[in-house]
Amino acid sequence: MKKLFYLILVALGILYNACGNKSTTSKDYKDASLSIDERVDALLPLMSLEEKVAQMRIFHANIGVKHDKDGKLQLSDRVIKKLKLGIAGIKNPGEHIDAVAAAKLNNELQKYIIENNRWGIPALFVTESYNGVDAEGCTKFGRPMTSAASFNPDLVRRQWDVVGKEARLRGMHMCHSPEADIVRDPRFGRMSEAFGEDTYLTTQMVKNAIIGVQGNYEGLGNGTHIGAVAKHFAGYGQVLGGSNFAAIEISPRTLIDEIYPPFEAAVKEAKTLGIMASHGDINGIASHGNPELLTGVLRDQWGFKGYVVSDSNDIARLHYFMHVAETPEDAARMGLEAGIDIDLYAEDSYAYLPEMVKKNPELEKLIDRSVRRVLRTKFILGLFDNPYIDIEEVKKGVRAQSSLELAKESDLESIILLKNEDKTLPLSKDKTLKVALLGPLLKENTKEMFESVAGSNVKFIAQKGFQLTNQKGGAPELLERDPKAIASLVNKARSADVSILFLGGDEYTSKEAYFSNSTLGDRATIDPVGPQDELVEKIKALGKPVIVVLKHRRTLSINVIAEQADAILDTWDLSEFGDESTARIIFGEVSPSGKSPVTIPRSIGQIPFHYSMKEINYKKEYLFLGKGPLYPFGHGLSYVDFEYSDISISNKELTPNTELQVSVKVTNKGNMKAKEVVQMYIKDEIGSVTRPDKELKGFEKIELNPGETKTVSFKITPKMLEFTGLKMEKVLEAGDYTVMVGTSSQDYLETKFKLKK
Q: φ, ψ for residue 244 (rounded to 5)?
């Protein structure tokens, strides 16, 4: 009996110890006091294979997420089926409704998702940002290319801070933006989505955009901001012929020195939560199946810890489009092995993984690797602990007055004065004046906005005249020339003292070319479409001042406009207050201070034609074409003259362990306050490989009162001078360097130094 009692006690002790050990050593992923890695480690082993794979897929809300007529969440059968096991995320839920309605929808949607998967795993709701949050009822900013023209990284950071806040208030968590691509081919329809042709400028803008949208990273866990997904890694802006989905051919040296740096800064300096892979290949290797790129460079070299998401359906396209995978299953395996963690939209890719693991159990280790990254992101964003939005905060925070004022401020710093013959601009509000607002890019409220700025002395007449296309989204067609419309516009101009022509291109003449053959967006030429040149010539022939306001989403070869117009304001694609901001510039409330983030060519035949090409590219010009670009990179005039003087350098010699400082004095010689972008370029005079003609290495935007002088200084470090050498390794070479400091890539003072090793 004693023996039996003893055995019972032992058994109870073992059971107690076993239970006790479990309670003290196992961890609960819901315990917010644990570290993020501990919570991921606790959750991942609980999940079935199918549940893991669900955390590797994103679908679009347009397959069946909406409100019903009573404002309640309504899900299609297809969506309900997808959500049974949980989901990595959903793209654009509530994008077409206002912020408050979207927040309510997304709260209901998140609640449904949490309550209908075993482990209560929340979903990521994903948006994009091209003109602010890509959704109804948010502050509409200018496009990235527009804000790049400001040459003001702090302004970009503040703008994307608003994007991050407004998106989070809608219930969003991630943003498939910003673009870190370098864009140098204006045939490409997506040109304005990026920050320009230059590596250094793009790096500064992308870094600040990510810091802004993520709330300096702290805003992620605080629930105030969203995570960034820098895209498209890598080389997407370099598609051959400027044609979306075409091959990408980039020399390995160019890839390392010019294409990678914005992405590297996104990872190392801005701590982006996500990276999106590129549609294309790089020198024959499809990016979505490229482990050297997505794991070797991104993770092993740069230490990226976030997740990599595919672009739309691109893992599956390794099979049926790229033809580098024998079967759809092979495509899924290639994407997984390369390092793609989330499959965007496809039904014929990662959906195959559960069955594939039965044949190849080793794949589950790679699945665990990806799911770990996705779960980590959700924990970083605080979604397990605080998955819902406070509706009252939405009402106060979206389209705040400060955000609207920031949109206007961004416009004013981004408008570029390309030409101002005989000081045509600014126009005076004090004189009685009749102004004709004319042309195909005129908006319904343009006249109203100009009237709100100009005052009672200036009278406006306005007429659009004609459209550029039939405005059909998939493949818009150019319209027949309308002689009556042109004649009517000329008659309007005849009755006015000055004409302001709104010309260029719109969202139909420059846009993304989707995978469908019926959807086009790239162009084979970059001349202004329709009879725009004819309109300029006929109105100029009246002998009255002609001001052109260029609105566009790709660089245009504006030869006739550049010759005929008395003044040209290049506005790219401004905010919702764009015409008001343009009027403020035209009537002299503010001096323009934007600088062109791209080279403006005379002809598409000059492409490739960026300012930082190799020096040998500039040896010869073309027959029957003017010399150089129409306007160089970094060009932008002001209403005042800025005098550059007294360039100096702290030392004529640099070593690998020292730094230099170059300084210049800038004086406002005009009679109004104005801003100027002081730019520093460096040229390596002799290199072991052919070197760029010059490279932007620093810039600073300053504001000067009339007659004021400021000394602007830039630091020169050995790191700035490194490049990829003969052996495809970073080198720092001794020799002579020229430093150029000025107002554009072609207008500057210069000094020299020598690097000694």
A: -60, 140
Q: Tokens in use for 83? A: 């959500």
Residue written as token pair 């000094």: 751
DSSP 471-509: --SSS--BPPP-HHHHHHHHHHHHTSSEEEEEEE--TTT
Strand partners, 161: none
Beta-strand pair 674-684/735-742:
antiparallel
Other C-beta atoms closer than 10 Å to the C-beta of 733 total 17
> What angle do helix axes 578-586 and 446-454 make, rounded to 10 degrees?
40
**Which residues lie below 8 Å from residue 562, measured CB to CB, with a gap of 6+?**
418, 419, 568, 630, 631
- d(Cα 130, Cα 141) in Å, to the nearest integer? 8
Q: Which structure tokens are listed for 193?
A: 């989505």
DSSP 351: G
Positive/negative CA dihedral, 344, 345, 349, 351: positive
- pLDDT per position as a tens digit, 55-72: 999 999 999 999 988 888
Supply 287's token pair: 């990016």
Query: 94: helix, coil or strand?
Result: coil
Measure the CA–CA gap between 619 and 565, rounded to whole angstroms.
31
Long-range Cβ pairs for the range 216-225 (8 Å, 24+): 217/271, 219/164, 219/165, 219/168, 220/273, 220/380, 220/381, 220/382, 221/380, 221/381, 221/382, 222/382, 223/168, 223/381, 223/382, 223/386, 224/164, 224/165, 224/168, 225/161, 225/164, 225/165, 225/167, 225/168
C-alpha–C-alpha distance, residues 19 and 13, integer Å: 10
664 bridge partner residues: 712
Angular region, 530: left φ>0, alpha ψ -120 to 50, beta rest:
left
User: What whole-number distance in Å separates Cα of residue 121 and Cα of residue 517?
Assistant: 38
The C-alpha atoms of residue 467 and residue 447 are separated, in whole angstroms, by 17
19-26 LR contacts (CB < 8 Å, sep 24+): none
Q: What does the pLDDT look like over 549-581, one tens digit per residue? A: 999 999 999 999 999 999 999 999 999 999 999
What pTM did the predictor assign?
Answer: 0.95
Three-state secondary structure of 569-634? EECCCCCCCHHHHHHHHHCCCCCCCCCCCCCECCCHHHCCCCCCCEHHHHCCCCCCCCCCCCECCC
Q: Tokens 């700025």 identify what position?
A: 453
Is the pLDDT confidence value at 745 over 70? yes
261 closest CA partner among 695, 595, 618, 690: 695
Backbone angles phi and psi of 71, in degrees to 5: 80, 15
Q: For residue 116, give Cα distances in angstroms to 86, 112, 341, 717.
A: 7, 6, 23, 56
β-pairing, 709-716 vs 735-742, is: unpaired
**Mean pLDDT in the chain?**
95
The residues with which 198 forms a beta bridge, in sequence order, are: none
Which amino acid appears at position 624 of this protein? Answer: F
Residues 276 and 342 sit within 8 Å (Cβ to Cβ) = no
Distance CA 466, CA 336 (A): 51
For every residue of 206-245, DSSP letters joined together read: HHHHHHHHTTTTHHHHTTSS-EEEEEEETTGGGBGGG-TT
